[in-house]
Amino acid sequence: MLYELFDNVHANSAELKQSFEYLKNDHYTKGPHKFRFRSYSTGKWIKNQMHWSQAVKPFFQPDSINVYLGGVERNYPALEAACKEFIQSTVSQLVNLELVPKGDYDVAGHQIRVAAKQGEEVSPTPEGYHQDGFDFLAISSINNHNISGATTKLRELATQEEIYSNALQANTTLVLDDRALEHFVSPFSPLSDGRAFRDVVIITMQKRQA
After folding, report:
1. 31 — phi, psi (to 5°)?
2. Which of 124, 154, 156 is CA-nearest to residue 141?
């Protein structure tokens, strides 16, 4: 499997949608306009159960993976309960439907809002096409509000051929093989007057060695 798109509406609660309103500003973003809001937690999926780490660990990617913020230890607030429940449900789906191989995984969850004001264009992935450095990656679209753009694109690492290009609709999850594919999201701006935002939950999964 290189990628799969599936419906995840059953796991998307009103509490989860509301929790995006309380995310703190991601002060690691560059430039005068802070457009990203974020929380982050890690855990382990062992024997079909999620075990969340009590300590909030820094998020780190090397320069070779992230040309935008590689080499920077980033500290974010921990995920709230509604987001953790969503991630647990989604990982369970991925494993039980065999969209990823059965087994135990190191898991990280990122709850992210990217927002644009009237007259602004913002980029959800300022690093461009990239990998996250894990075995599998799941991108869950929770809510799109008043946005024009934000097309998710996938291309094969080996050939650079684009194999997917679509705007993710709310209540869908795109799971992909992060070892074989690079991903990118095009910039977006408000479709009409008022604020615009794109709310996603990103789950990374790394197979644990026996």
Report:
1. 100, 170
2. 124
Per-residue pLDDT reduced to its tens digit, 162-198: 999 999 999 999 999 999 999 999 999 999 998 899 9
d(CA 95, CA 46): 11
Which backbone phi and psi does 76 adopt, to 5 degrees?
-125, 155
Q: The pTM is what? A: 0.91
Q: What SS3 class is residue 99?
A: coil
Q: Are 2 and 174 in contact (CB under 8 A)?
A: no
Total number of domains in the chain? 1
Bridge pairing between strands 3-7 and 172-177: antiparallel
Which burial class, exposed, middle or buried, applies to 62 when counting CB atoms under 10 A from its CB (0-12, 13-18, 19+)?
exposed
Question: The domain that contains 17 carries what CATH number?
Answer: 2.60.120.620
Location of structure tokens 């430039």: 31
Residue 149's domain spans which residues?
A: 3-207
* Diameter of the chain measured on Cα atoms: 54
Q: Report the candidate in 208, 185, 180 with the shortest Cα–Cα distance to residue 1.
A: 180
| d(C-alpha 140, C-alpha 148), whole Å | 18
CA 89, chain centre distance (Å): 15
Residue recorded with tokens 């701006």: 189
